[in-house]
Design a protein that fits this description.
97 residues; mainly alpha; two-stranded antiparallel sheet; 3 helices; 2 strands; 4% strand; flat
């Protein structure tokens, strides 16, 4: 039975920053800033800005397609390529047949 209380939107909304995945957006900004401040040249500033805006564009496209794309991909990478359809040879069968 429903209690009549609505769930707050922030509990169900994905954690996005500037339209993209939070961690990836901040990390791409950090990489662009490190490039700009480490080299101290106008060419590095232009390259860092282009890197930042292109990464932000791609991350926004990813978030628009599926906001949970990064966690799903990382979970997919942890799966094995093949799972055997039987247990290990050291399994003890206790049913007697």
């Amino acid at each position: 039975m429903l209690s009549g209380h609505a769930m707050h939107r922030s509990l169900n909304r994905p954690s996005l920053f500037m339209g993209g995945d939070r961690e990836m957006t901040m990390f791409s900004g950090l990489l662009a800033a490190a490039l700009i401040f480490a080299i101290h040249a106008w060419s590095a500033a232009i390259t860092g800005g282009l890197l930042w805006f292109s990464a932000l564009y791609v991350l926004r496209l990813m978030a628009k397609a599926d906001p949970q794309m990064r966690p799903v991909y990382l979970r997919h990478r942890r799966y094995k390529r093949y799972y055997a359809a039987r247990s290990t040879p050291w399994r003890v069968n206790r049913r007697g047949y």
